[in-house]
Specification:
single chain, 256 residues, alpha+beta, L-fuculose-1-phosphate Aldolase, Aldolase_II/adducin_N, Aldolase_II/adducin_N_sf
Amino acid sequence: MSATAETTRPDWCEPQEWAARVQLAATYRVFHQLGWTELIFNHITLRVPGPHKHFLINPFGLTYDEIKASNLVKIDLDGKILSPGDYPINPAGFVIHSAIHANVEDAHCVMHTHTTAGLAVACMEDGLASTNFYSAQLHGLVAYHDFEGITVHDDEKPRLLKSMGDKRLLILRNHGLLAHGVSLAHAFALLWTLNRACEIQVVTDSMRGHALSIDPAITARATRDALQFSPAHGAGDNILAALIRRVDRQDPSYKE
């Protein structure tokens, strides 16, 4: 943790939790810069270090460029708010994220977006196509979950988990994209690759002719070679760190 971040830590927050808050707030600002926003909706959640399955979520009512380390909301798996603050949480975000945090031991971070390209591909019957450089790196990593309406009902949790299985990426049909990872950077690298694949697919599908399919043997090898997904090779740490440096140059208020 930087000296600046440590000096802004409030008395009610332990150093490890504060470090997590700063990193998560920075990532919300990265999403804002990338345009991965949906007014005050969608979520990135992060497990709080420690023995309990508590996690941090964005306060419902703030845009991503308003999120700071201090206004993130800590909740338990039942949705009980455990930190001081003036904002509630979004029930729709809690249902999806709590299901994964509760049942996937190494899902320390969960990200969910409604980007235009991601949602467009989620609306297509065939889903993601193995036709471009980025989708070729996602061989066997993507699952699908059928749309059941707005995700505010607890009874959807087991079905969502069954749909996801052991996959890190989930396309919520007619809805959007989801990724979970062992860290913020790991989840980000996965989600960025999936979203980029969707962007290319949307443009490709708008052109004349037929897209070239990539042989499954090639996509399997490309996925093995995509080291940004491997915790042993940083799992996207250098990617996210570079984007956070850009946030720092423009507006470091997320550290407050």
